[in-house]
Every structure is written in C-alpha cells, then in structure tokens.
Specification:
alpha/beta; two-stranded antiparallel sheet; about 30% helix; globular; binds 1-O-pyrophosphono-5-O-phosphono-alpha-D-ribofuranose; binds orotic acid
C-alpha cells in the first residue's frame, strides 16, 4: 500500500495547501482512493487501523474522505454504513448537511485521506456532533505530521494514521 501511495499520489513541486500553507510536494490520495487496485486495499488497511474501535458508520468532509469511507463500507462485509459531510449545508431538497443513513445517536468514525492541520476533519466532527452522532475517533490514510494529531486530540478524540511521511520516505516540512 505504501508503495502504491508513493507511486501514484506523491506529486513534487511547490503547492498551496487547503490551509493556505505552502509545501514542496502534494500527496494526492484521490489518485489512490479512486484506483481500481488500491481502493480495496485502503478499505482493509483503514479497517485494520481501527479494529479495536466500535462504530457502525464512517465518513468525513467531502470530497477527500468520500472514497475512503466507501472503501471501508465495501471492505466491512455489511457492518458499516457510510456518510458524506457537505462543506456547506444545501439550500434545496432536504437541506441535509450530512448525506446517507441518519447518524443521530450512532457511534461513527470520522475519516480523511490526508490531514495537514486537521481543520477539514474537525469541520466534519463538528457537524457530526451537531447532528447528534457520537464520534469515536479520527483516522486518516496519510498524516503530514503538521498539527492534525494535536488539533484532533484537543477536541477529546483519539487520532490514528496509517502512514506518516517517514513511512513514505518523504521529507517532513514546517
Ligand atoms: O488537514 P487540513 O489542513 O484540513 O488539510 C487536508 C484536507 O485538504 C484536502 O482537501 P481539500 O481542502 O483540498 O478539498 P477536497 O477534499 O474537496 O479536494 C484533503 O483531502 C483534506 O481534506
Ligand atoms: O493540506 C492539504 O491541502 C493537502 C495536502 C496533501 O498532501 N494532500 C492533499 O490532498 N491535501
């Protein structure tokens, strides 16, 4: 799996990140999470990562989290639902911020493809809590080691990642 991430997702070059920070490379995990061979592996790796946590639905802030959640749903053999947290609520239709089976009163896992500051996944956590879900923790495929762990732990949640930058032989930054 780490080989596939290095091969498919690491894009060298100066880039502005979601938080406005700058970095010398991007880890475009959508190229992995939407890949025919890699996506099923992601489902299994992420389920293994949180095998000791109890939850029955998984998802996060659209769109990086969406294929991760779908991969886990498919790998779970029928034990997990998935959901999508919109970046903004929708003004028409049913006006739902969180799409999918209702999460109110359920134990849920918040996921992300890559975390830098943790801001995106924490937006999802906040929306989930507002919707009445109990978030049991946060899990990401790649953690950039730049504050997400501390930010997630500061809201009282455990945080796990499948791969660090060191696991991918990438230089750590800022
Ligand atoms: O930890 P953070 O500082 O929040 O950064 C990580 C976020 O940035 C990327 O998404 P992006 O904001 O580019 O949006 P997208 O998922 O809609 O492509 C990535 O998929 C994470 O969601
Ligand atoms: O912080 C980000 O925006 C970010 C970093 C990264 O390596 N990959 C990604 O998809 N987003």
């Amino acid at each position: 799996m780490s080989g596939l991430i290095s091969e498919l997702a690491v894009v060298p070059g100066r880039v502005t990140l979601s938080s406005g920070r700058e970095a010398d490379y991007y880890v475009d995990l959508r190229r992995v999470s939407l890949h025919r061979e890699a996506a099923p592996l992601i489902g299994r790796v992420m389920l293994d990562l949180v095998a000791d946590w109890s939850f029955d639905a998984v998802g996060g802030l659209t769109m990086g989290a969406d294929p991760v959640a779908a991969a886990m749903l498919h790998a779970s053999g029928g034990s997990l639902d998935a959901f999508v947290v919109r970046k903004q609520g929708k003004a028409h239709g049913l006006q739902r911020r969180i799409e999918g089976p209702d999460v109110a009163g359920r134990r849920v896992l918040a996921v992300e493809d890559t975390s830098t500051t943790g801001g995106s996944v924490l937006t999802a956590v906040e929306a989930l809590r507002e919707a009445g879900a109990e978030v049991v923790g946060v899990a990401v495929i790649v953690d950039r080691g730049t504050g997400a762990a501390e930010a997630v732990e500061a809201v009282g949640l455990p945080y796990r990642w499948a791969y660090s930058l060191t696991d991918l032989n990438l230089p750590t930054q800022f």
